[in-house]
Structure formats: structure tokens, C-alpha cells
Amino acid sequence: MDEKEPTRVGAAVKRRRRTLQLTLAVVASRSGLSVPFLSQVENERARPSRRSLDLLAEALETTAGELIAAAEATRTVDVVRAGEHAPGLPEGVRPLVRGRHQLHAMEFTGEQDAGREFQHRNDELLYVADGAVEIEAEGRAHRLGRGDTLYLSGGVRHRWRATEPGTRLLVVAVADHVEAEET
Description:
Residues 13-67 form the HTH cro/C1-type domain. It holds the Pfam family Cupin_2. Keywords: DNA-binding. InterPro entries: Cro/C1-type_HTH, Cupin_2, Lambda_DNA-bd_dom_sf, RmlC-like_jellyroll, RmlC_Cupin_sf, TransReg_Diox_bact_type. This is XRE family transcriptional regulator. It is a single chain. By secondary structure, the chain is α+β, with helices and mostly antiparallel strands. Helix content is 26%, strand content 26%. The chain is built from 5 helices and 9 strands; from the N terminus they run H-H-H-H-H-E-E-E-E-E-E-E-E-E. The protein has helices at 10-19, 24-31, 35-42, 50-59, 64-74; strands spanning 93-95, 103-109, 118-119, 124-130, 132-137, 140-145, 149-152, 157-162, 168-174. The strands form 2 sheets. It has a 5-stranded antiparallel sheet with strand order 1-2-9-4-7, with no helix packed on it. The protein has a 4-stranded antiparallel sheet with strand order 3-8-5-6, with no helix packed on it. A hairpin with a 2-residue loop joins strand 5 and strand 6 (140-145). The protein is elongated, with a radius of gyration of 21 Å.
């Protein structure tokens, strides 16, 4: 980490604090840093010095390196071009997000017939960009055309198939490795 340009670690700090179920006051007490300063760090209005980051990491039972790595992973900016195809995937199936992130997105083009039943841990949204699909969810068939969406909460069994040539279906979901919070 460059001492002249401290890393933005707010989201990683907040995520770690919540994972440990700690309040800002407890982290402040453990680290010797003030609650207002910690709040500013978490909300990206302040960047901790290397010394403050070390104190904060110790209070959160981790290392400064782990916090920085977690922060960098959440800051990924990546462009997936229209013509790109991922190796190992069948023709007409393209990831819209590369890597392991909280969001999973795929594009299915052509006369795809998924055939098999799916059940995902977290919520997902299916959007018909072109053409039409038929989606069976919880024993009911739903016909969707261009511009239509279908939302499925986590755990809903479903299957889908394209019903017109040239169909493009976008599937956006909270990744399976993400622990959904109860509301």
C-alpha cells in the first residue's frame, strides 16, 4: 500500500465488523480510534493511515492486508465486450460478470432449452431482451416476451426454455456464495 495514497477500505471494514457482530463503539474501544472516525472510514469519507489501519485490523481480528484485499475485490471494474465468449461454456451462453462477485449475470442467446430444473440459494431476475421464453416456476407456466421480467426468490424451483429463434435472456442473480440477510 502506498503511504501517500491510503486505500479506501470502508466497505471491507463495515462488512468485517458486521460479520463479527460488533458495534462501532466496541471497535473504537478495541482500536483506540474514535467512533466518528470509524464511521467516516466505513462511509468512505475518511481513509485510515497505515497505523490506523493496523489498529483497526487488530480490533477486527484480521490483518491490514486482508482488509486491503477485501477492499480491492469489491472495487473491481471490468468490461465484458459483446463478442467475448468464455471457454468451457456452450455456444449461446455468456457470462456478463467475470470472477467471483456478489452478483452473477449470464446471457443466453438462441434457442436455448435449459430443460433441467434449477433451484438457486438466492434471489434472481430473468429479463427477456429479445424473443420469448416460457418459464415454469412453482408448478405454473409463465410466458414472457421482449422487455418482460420474472423475479424469483431464493429457493424457488424453476426451468425455462426459449420459444422463439433469436431469443436473448439475461439472468441476474445474487451469487450462491453470498449469505442473504433475513428481512
